[in-house]
Automatic annotation (TrEMBL):
The chain crosses the membrane at residues 12-29, 35-54, 66-86, 92-113, 120-140, 146-166, 178-203, 209-229, 236-256, 262-280. Keywords: Membrane, Transmembrane, Transmembrane helix. It comes from the Bacteria. The keyword Protein biosynthesis does not apply. This is Multidrug transporter. Residues 14-137, 148-277 form the EamA domain. InterPro entries: EamA_dom (IPR000620), EmrE-like (IPR037185). GO terms for cellular component: membrane.
């Protein structure tokens, strides 16, 4: 039993490591964001589809679940596009830390969407997050690329939080690979027209990074992440996933030589502290 627990801890850390490559790869790929995300989704769809066929997973979903899965795919696309724009306008540290406001955003959305009781402590955590965002970009000027990047990062976090909430009940019903296959298909179809806005040679020149983004970050990373929901409760997943920006910043420092500033580190500590506080606090609340 103990060995299984250690195995599952390793699995979620591997998932976070793979997903964290999105920061460096998003900065490295020199293509329009809509094209990058479109290719990412299409390639990931092909890999996931073949994997599901090989495993013999059923692609059948109920009609009542189809609208939810479509909306979750749309939100996933919005999350990716806004996040990559944030990366282009700033750096790996700013981009990744700004989207990690999503756990606190989730805490505000859940009472509204799932009719749960609102907790006053969430206002204090929101203040902590806002303080962290201030340190990421002390100058609140929308002509400043960092301020715009943080705004896009928070918007990306909002879309991601909303996607996670509406998809929460479907994880136990459908295999994680199947859900990701549908979501990548939806994003790929919606962004497919943008692939004709640039010369094909530009895409071919960056095929290695695009395949890495599709396979490592999306097909492997996000699928492993969804599968960890079966082994941990959402609270534990939230705590463990807070290591993702750390991995991302380290990868950015190694491969892109992007060393975060002191204020960025301080802002990141405040944001990630709010995630851990909320996770630990929620874990102590007895379930009804």
């Amino acid at each position: 039993m103990k060995n299984n627990h250690i195995k599952h801890l390793i699995e979620i850390n591997v998932a976070m490591l793979f997903i964290a490559t999105s920061g460096a790869l998003g900065r490295y790929v020199q293509l329009p964001v809509s094209v990058t995300i479109g290719i990412r989704a299409i390639l990931a769809f092909v890999v996931l589809f073949l994997f599901c066929k090989w495993k013999g997973f059923s692609f059948k979903i109920s009609k009542s679940d189809a609208p939810v899965i479509f909306i979750s795919g749309l939100l996933m696309g919005i999350h990716w596009v806004a996040y990559f724009y944030a990366l282009k306008l700033s750096n790996v540290a700013i981009g990744m830390l700004s989207i990690f406001t999503y756990p606190v955003i989730t805490a505000f959305l859940e009472p509204i969407l799932l009719k749960t009781k609102f907790q006053l402590v969430h206002l204090l955590l929101a203040f902590l997050v806002l303080t962290g965002i201030y340190f990421l970009s002390p100058s609140l000027d929308f002509e400043n690329s960092y301020t715009l990047a943080i705004s896009l990062g928070v918007f990306s976090a909002f879309a991601y939080a909303l996607r996670n909430i509406i998809l929460k009940k479907k994880v136990n019903k459908y295999n994680g690979s199947i859900l990701m296959t549908y979501q990548t298909a939806i994003v790929g179809v919606l962004l497919f027209p943008f692939l004709f806005t640039i010369e094909p040679i530009l895409i071919v020149e960056q095929w290695k990074a695009l395949i890495a983004l599709a396979v490592l970050t999306t097909a492997i990373g996000h699928t492993l992440f969804l599968m960890t929901f079966k082994h941990f409760n959402i609270t534990t997943v939230s705590i463990l996933s807070s290591v993702q920006p750390v991995y991302g910043i380290i990868i950015g420092a190694i491969f892109l030589s992007e060393i975060p500033r002191g204020t960025t580190i301080l802002g990141g500590i405040l944001i990630l502290s709010s995630v851990v506080i909320e996770s630990v606090r929620a874990k102590k609340i007895p379930k009804t």
